[in-house]
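Task card 7
Instruction: Convert sequence to structure tokens.
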Amino acid sequence: MNAIKLISFLLLIFSLTDGLLGADVKSTIAAIERLPRARRLIAYPDAIRQPQITPADRLALTIAFSKHAKKVSPHYLQARRAWDLDDWISIFERGFQAAPQDPDIAWALTQIHINEKRYSKALPIAEAFKQANPNHHHALAWQTVCNALPDGTPLRPNPKTIRVIPVHFCVLTKNPAAHQLATIEQCRQECEILNRNFRAYDGSALVEFTFKGFSSYAEIRDTQSDLIQYGDSTEPYDSNRIARAFNQCKDTRVRDPNAINFYIFDSYSSGPKFADMTSHGKRNSNRPYLMLDWQRLGNKVQNPEAHEMGHCFGLGHVGVPGASGKSPTNIMTSGGEQFGSGGARTYGFTEAQIALILYHAKRTSQRLGITSESN
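Output:
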């Protein structure tokens, strides 16, 4: 940010916070929300710290702030954080005391403590989070971890009992160029790619992916499953429609009911047409499937296999303020969060993310009838 832009930004923050006393807090929130998203991480704490505001207004600002803060973490980028984490903790602790039932405040504060391995501090927040939201997967996963680990202990599965997850590959696109790349040999390599990259930030393995089967387009082109129409669809991507087609599919060549299904398709969007490479992963009530654009096979462009598999295990996108295209960011980073670029996605999962992965790995294994563990 150059000097002129910085001065303009600081004047804007001053006008927002200085005028807060007696102002409509909704207008203040609306004004902050018009800022670029990364700047909101500065504007909200500045507004919240103003001594003149009422407790009710402070809480409203804290709730609005938490919706952004839960999407970022100093652990999502291999660099010094750009904010005072203790200040954030103080803000969210006050907010939690005022509204322990608010899921966004509880999420943001629990996540900070777990990523810092402060499980004893996270536990009462996770318990309140679960009590207010008894079916929230993050609350359930995080409470389990906080009950199990002493402070300072990395969350890692026992190497002797890591869950083994089979993967079935199926080529949905009719594109001949895709068929040249999407071979059984390449799909075996995709499992190896997953095992190299689907890891904690210290490189520890979390699950083990094994190749189970492969169906080429030629082998499934006569299927009655509606899934095949999404191999080259020019319609806007519709997650719910595809999930319905997947759940209704009875053709085991297309959908293996006892594996994570990995589909190779040709993504399309209105601008780049079939040059688009957007891919998708869906937990689907612990019957996961992954749709990878064929051009990204072989770990091309932003670690796509591990990123989409993260979605299969219940993880959402995160943001890294100021990240460039080459920044070593967390696997789940996305430019779509509007904090910065998605970066290189070479930095592994954090403790809070690992807790959700292990929670859903168990549920997925049970749902798919998988019982094996590595020896």
